[in-house]
Amino acid sequence: MSRFVIVATSVAITVAIATLAFWLGAWAFGYRRYSTHQTRLQHLVVQRPTLARVVQGLHDEGSPLVASPVSDEDLQRVAAERGRGKAAEVLEKGRRWPRTRVFVAGDMVYFIYFDDADVMRDFTCVGK
Fold first, then answer.
1. Which of 85, 58, 90, 51 is nearest to 74 (CA)?
2. What is the pTM of this model?
3. CB 117 within 8 A of CB 106
4. Rounded mean pLDDT of 82-104?
């Protein structure tokens, strides 16, 4: 009986440690993935690129433009479809700036906001 308890305890501890290791690995990968995209967009906004430059640059690297909402209803629809947990932020920023463009960059969705002069002013990055 004691041999069974020792083996069962060892297996339970091993499973718990393996589960923790996989969970931490998945969390770290997700954090790194998100922070990489976030940092990339932060550097881009500092450069103050034009809408045409952003659209062309992202297209050239395989991140297509998927939406260009022109009305508040369009913005609400796109925010609901692609904004996930950041839909409220997308709506708030999209209402602040006159132009919003939505891109799919791998496993992320970029909402990029432009002013009246078509200069990039802000962004929201959302995981798919």
1. 90
2. 0.81
3. no
4. 97
